[in-house]
Design goal:
It is built from 1 helix and 9 strands, in the order αβββββββββ. By secondary structure, the protein is an alpha+beta fold. The protein has a domain of 122 residues: minor pseudopilin epsh fold. The strands form 2 sheets. Strands 1, 2, 3, 4 and 6 form a 5-stranded antiparallel sheet that branches. β1 and β2 form a beta hairpin. The chain is elongated.
Length: 191
């Protein structure tokens, strides 16, 4: 009678615990970087949706040959001052910044994530943009700046608009990782 002994292959408990410890250390190093990526993508998404709404408002004013308003949402069809409530784009031939029965809603922009900051700075402290039939803005130039929840200046983003209706994104001209405003000053976050 011959007894054959087979060697069993597998991992010991010690080897599994060492592997789990290494995985935990790697995750603890990667998660903060992942959170930074999430904040930056969130910033880009919010600012791109605002830029799209801006371009829609301008092109609608030109194509329909009537004034169009892009503003912070206060309630059902009316403009307010808090851009974190979302935004509206609608025809506004009478200039009262309230959407009435004959005025068409062109777009409604959702609220940014809770804890976000979104501020508009414009001439005469206006909190709305009114595009005329020629695509120009009515007496205003300025910017809209966004900071995500728990954001740093590196996460801030802004849109800069001119009176002639042109729009551009604030860039990091000096390559320090922080975008600048229209005057070349670094953005701050929180606002």
């Amino acid at each position: 009678m011959t007894v054959s002994i087979q060697k069993t292959r597998g991992y010991t408990l010690v080897e599994l615990l060492v592997a789990l410890c290494i995985l935990a250390i790697l995750l603890s190093l990667a998660l903060p970087a992942f959170a930074d990526v999430v904040r930056r993508v969130q910033s880009e998404t919010v600012v791109n949706s605002l830029a799209n709404a801006y371009q829609l408002a301008r092109s609608a004013a030109i194509n329909q040959r009537q004034p169009v308003v892009f503003c912070a949402k206060a309630g059902a069809g009316s403009c307010g001052n808090d851009w974190t409530n979302g935004a509206l784009v609608f025809q506004d031939p009478n200039g009262n910044r309230v959407m009435e029965n004959e005025e068409k809603l062109l777009a409604e922009i959702a609220q940014p994530p809770t804890g976000s900051q979104l501020k508009m700075r414009a001439a005469l402290n206006k909190q709305y943009l009114r595009f005329m039939a020629n695509g120009m803005l009515e007496n205003t130039a300025g910017s809209i700046t966004y900071c995500p929840p728990k954001g740093t200046p590196r996460d801030a983003r802004n849109l800069i608009f001119t009176r002639n209706g042109r729009l551009r994104f604030g860039n990091d001209q000096n390559r320090d990782g922080i975008p600048e405003n229209a005057e070349g000053q670094p953005l701050s976050c929180p606002l």
